[in-house]
Amino acid sequence: MKISSRLLPFAVLLVSLLWGSAFPAIKGIYAQWEMLGVEQTMENRLLLAGLRFAVAGLILLFLAKQPLKDFKATPKWPLLGFALGQTYFQYILFYTALSVSSAVLGGLLTGLGSIWWLLLAPLMLKTPWPNLKQWALISLAFVGVIIAVYRPGAGSGNPVMGATLFAGCTLSGALGLIILNKVLKTMGARSATGWGLLIGGVLLTLTGFQAWGDLAQLFPLKVIGYSIYLVIVSAVGFSVWNYLTSLFSVNLLAGYRFFIPVCAVVLSTLLVEGETPGVGIWLGGSLVVISLIILHREQHSADN
User: Fold this and answer.
1) Cβ contact 160:303 at 8 Å
2) What tens digit of pLDDT does each residue of 74-108 get?
3) Is the Cα dihedral 79, 95, 153, 159 positive or negative?
4) Alpha-carbon distances, residue 219 vs 21, 30, 144, 216 (angstroms)
5) C-alpha dihedral (110, 200, 218, 94), degrees to nearest 10
6) Are 125 and 174 in contact (CB under 8 A)?
7) Which pLDDT score, from 0 to 100, does residue 149 have?
8) How far apart are the C-alpha atoms of 210 and 57, rounded to whole Å?
9) Whose CA is closest to 246, among 108, 70, 48, 51?
């Protein structure tokens, strides 16, 4: 089914609500671990993430039309690069960031993905460089991030470390999305998403091998429930988003990503106990979102 440009904002909003809900869900798992006396070690986090993405990838490959044929027809290095960027490295950083900082701050900083795309696309996809006004808006967005990190509010943990990790996370995701453009030349969007999630998920699971012996302790009933939901978030969210990349330009999609930080901040505020956005989140977040909206309009005008 083709999605028209008029329906694009609603498709991105759906993805944003799904991805935004992942922040409180992961925080919910960490809260369960804390209540049960389970340490949030790197190995435990990697096993949690790896199983989530591997299962989501298998589901998508099962639903794809010709995943094995697509796999054989696709150069393996770009596919591996996509899996490493969009799944492996992105979520090592993401899960670690959520363990040291707040979901509210992390939700806001997902908006950096659009900025990274505007900076990386000219280098890797040979799109035009931002003009002077766009550079000013990018700078304004970074000022907003600094303000948000300075006064993030209650439950923020280590905001500087969290912000650094979230920035690296969004950079990895942006690189993965750009590499996806090469993968989609020989592979359908659903197959590409499935293989990316499966390969990245298996690598995460293998990296967290030291936690395998604690599997039963790590996955009590409530954590299993959260994990099933996160599998659905990954399968549906990445499937829809990567399908959109096969229909619309990276720059156009980047412009609509302001939905993601808005949804993530709102859902984290409502659902994560002990987190209250401070003045920095509201003021800095407003600067980030306003910058992204104007950047989108500028880009859309330039494309037309």
Assistant:
1) no
2) 999 999 999 999 999 999 999 999 999 888 888 88
3) negative
4) 20, 11, 38, 5
5) -20
6) no
7) 86
8) 23
9) 70
- Positive or negative torsion for Cα 262, 263, 269, 270: positive
Q: What is the token pair recorded at 74?
A: 């696709």
> Do 108 and 261 meet the contact criterion of CB atoms below 8 Å apart?
yes
Over the stretch 23-67, which tens digit does the pLDDT of each residue have?
Answer: 999 999 999 999 999 888 999 999 999 999 999 999 999 988 899
Helix axes 76-83, 189-207, angle to 10 degrees: 60
Q: How far apart are CA 63 and CA 51, in angstroms?
A: 19
| Structure token pair of residue 62 | 């099962």
126 conformational bin, left if phi > 0, alpha if psi -120 to 50, beta if neither:
left
Instruction: Work out the angle between the directed axes of helices 189-207 and 221-245 (0-180°, nearest 10).
Output: 140
Q: How many CA atoms lie within 13 A of 34 on its CB side?
A: 7
Q: Under the phi-then-psi rule, with left for phi > 0, alpha for psi from -120 to 50, and beta for the rest, what region is 64? A: beta
**How many CB atoms sit inside 10 A of residue 115's CB?**
26
Closest CA to 80 of 172, 180, 174: 180
> What residues are paired with 277 via a beta bridge?
153
87 with 199: CB under 8 angstroms?
yes
What b/e sequence results for 197-231 when a residue is b if at least 16 CB atoms lie within 10 Å of its CB, and e otherwise?
bbbbbbbbbebbeebeeeeeebbeeebeebbebbb
**Helices in the chain by DSSP H: which ranges?**
8-36, 42-63, 67-73, 76-83, 90-100, 103-109, 112-124, 132-150, 159-183, 189-207, 215-218, 221-245, 250-256, 259-271, 279-303
Q: Which two tokens stand for residue 298?
A: 């500028």
